[in-house]
Structure formats: C-alpha cells, structure tokens
From TrEMBL:
Record keywords: Membrane, Transmembrane, Transmembrane helix
Name of the protein in its database record: Peptidase M50B-like
Pfam families assigned to the protein according to its UniProt record, in alphabetical order: Peptidase_M50B
Species for this entry: Streptomyces misionensis
InterPro entries: Peptidase_M50B-like
Length: 240
C-alpha cells in the first residue's frame, strides 16, 4: 500500500505540474470564435453570463478571505446577479479590495489562465479551476447557486479526467477566451445602468462611498483592467 502511494503521488504531481503540447493555431482561433458566439448575442449572453457571475462573486469572496474578513455566504441568481456577504470592518483597505474584486475578477482570472496556457500547463489550469469551484461551493447559500457551480465544476472535472489532450486544450482555451472577452462586457453594462440611474448600489458606487473617489473613476479602472487583460492575455494565447 505504501509502495502504491509512493508511486502514485509523484505521478499525480508530475501530471499536475507537467506541460502539455500547445494546440494548433486554428484551435486557438476556433475557441476564440466560440467564446464570441456565447458572448456577443444578447439572448445567449443572458445564459452564459452566469459563468461571469460565478467569477465575479468568487472574486469578492476570495479577496474577502485574503484580507481577513469573515465570508458568510455567496448567492447566485437566475438573472445573473449575485451577492457576496462578508463580516468585518465596513471600511478600510480590506473592504475596498473586496468591493473592487468583483468586476476585475473574470478578466484577471482569464489573464492568469492565459499565463498558464502560455507555459503549456493545461492540466494545472483545469485542476485549479475545479478546486476553486469546489471551495466556492461550500459558501453557496441558495439552490440556483449550487446548481450553477456544480454544473461548472462538473464540466471541468469531466474534461480533466475523461477527455483526451486535444479536447482538454480546446476546453481550456475556450474557457480562458470566455473570461477575457466576457470580462469586458459587464463594465459597459454597469456604465449604461448608471446613466439610467439604475445602479445606485453598484460596486463602483460602494467604492465611491468607501474612498470618496468618484464612481466614474472606479468604472474607468474596471474598463482598464478588463481591456488590458484581454490585450495581454490574448497575445499570450495567440503565441502558439
């Protein structure tokens, strides 16, 4: 038994940290096209945006924990809105970083994923995403949220364990393209809502109250992070 564990653990570690061959350029471009197909048309976006919401609320939750706040729960709703609740001081750096993490999380996760793919670490990306979703599931506090996170985590788990290298590569590239491109759209949606006066309690407005910096500047930061991540991550993905 000990010999089996001694053999299996190094093999598992090698599989996790090892590199896989880059896909062909046409696969990278095809996955970009697939991401655009589920982002650009509004009817499809209303469904696929659930994945962006997972990243958005997960970003709030992760930074809340990293800054010492007590994360009490995350809710994901069928209209693609969400709510992350944490306890701690209602002001200060931890609260500011937590509030700023939502709109920047999808793009920054995409950028991190692109960095992993640029070094050929497809398996590491898939397993890391599965682990993050499993940890997030523990904090979900409503049925719809559980359903969406289980479906997302199940997809990563099935692909990472059952699919061949080519399918894994295509799936990983599609996910990262989706985060990079999809992360650009929510700040523009927030901008339109603010113009209509429908976003008085948005992340940008909360940050404005916390920092006394105009909400428009926080919105500019969201745009800058998403667009710079798309440019930088896109360059990495296309270098195959």
């Amino acid at each position: 038994m000990n010999d089996l564990a001694a053999t299996a653990l190094p093999d598992l570690w090698d599989r996790l940290t090892g590199t896989q061959p880059d896909p062909a350029l046409w696969v990278v471009l095809a996955t970009l096209a697939a991401a655009l197909v589920v982002i650009a048309p509004r009817p499809v976006w209303l469904i696929s945006r659930n994945a962006i919401t997972i990243a958005h609320e997960g970003g709030h939750g992760l930074i809340a924990l990293l800054t010492g706040r007590q994360l009490t729960g995350i809710r994901l709703h069928s209209d693609t809105s969400g709510l992350t609740v944490s306890r701690g001081k209602p002001y200060g750096l931890g609260m500011i970083l937590t509030a700023a993490a939502g709109y920047t999380a999808p793009s920054l996760l995409g950028l991190g994923g692109a960095a992993l793919l640029a070094t050929g670490r497809i398996t590491l990306l898939l397993w890391a995403a599965t682990a993050l979703l499993a940890l997030m599931l523990v904090m979900i506090r409503n049925a719809y949220g559980v359903l969406t996170v289980v479906l997302a985590g199940g997809a990563f788990l099935l692909v990472s364990w059952l699919a061949g290298p080519q399918v894994q590569a295509a799936f990983a590239y599609a996910v990262v393209w989706f985060l990079l491109v999809g992360g650009v759209r929510p700040p523009f949606e927030l901008q339109r809502k603010r113009r209509r006066g429908d976003a008085g309690d948005s992340d940008a407005d909360q940050l404005s109250r916390l920092t006394h910096v105009p909400a428009g500047l926080w919105l500019f930061l969201f745009h800058a992070v998403s667009l710079c991540s798309l440019i930088g991550g896109g360059r990495w993905l296309l270098e195959v």
